[in-house]
Amino acid sequence: MLISVLPVNAKDDVDIYDLTFDENWATPEIKNDKQADKIQEFQYDMAVAFKKSNYDVELMRNNEVVVVTIPASQLFEPNDTTLTSLGETLLKPFLRMIKNPGVYKMLLVMHSDDTGSSTYTYNLTRQRVNAIFDWFDENGSVDYVVPYAMGETDPVVDNNSVENRKRNRRLEIYLIPEQTMIQQAKKGRISISQNR
Length: 196
Prior knowledge:
The structure is a single chain. This protein is α+β, with helices and mostly antiparallel strands and 196 residues long. It has a single domain (19-187), classed as CATH 3.30.1330.60. It is 38% helix and 17% strand. The chain is built from seven helices and five strands, in the order H-H-E-E-H-H-E-H-E-H-E-H. The chain has helices at 21-26, 33-52, 85-91, 95-98, 118-139, 162-168, 179-187; strands at 56-60, 65-71, 104-111, 145-149, 170-177. It has a five-stranded mixed sheet with strand order 1-2-5-3-4. Helix 5 (118-139) links the parallel strand 3 (104-111) and strand 4 (145-149). Helix 2 (33-52) packs across helix 7 (179-187). The protein is globular.
């Protein structure tokens, strides 16, 4: 994936809500090797913890970004935009990240299959990601949470079977190191409070 990067002098004045998904995914850059090593180690441990809890997990951007994928069918009823109780249960572990402001930037990226028009799939993913964003807002701070509705535009597999369409309907949660984590890495120890 080709990612555009913001000019160095522009980063401090940028509102993360004004950035494209690619710009948010690529920033902030971690340039110091010792900080990067510490962050990669922490993120690996975070990925393992989510994997042990049966989440679908991937490491990206040189192992600095954790991506957790949750099937839309576990969050919403078909064609619905109200979070299910199972959906709320699956999202609860992520509250820890937003209750520690500045440690992570969290991108919520909702996807659909290609059933229906592009307008329908976009509106469905927009309403669903907004419902998830609102749930996080009700349960913590959303200062570092950015929602994206992708509609049908980024399938993981061809939409040529019921099972494949089910795989394409998903929420991806990107856990991207932010300035507090970078500063902690500089000091040699990264931690996220359990009880905030």
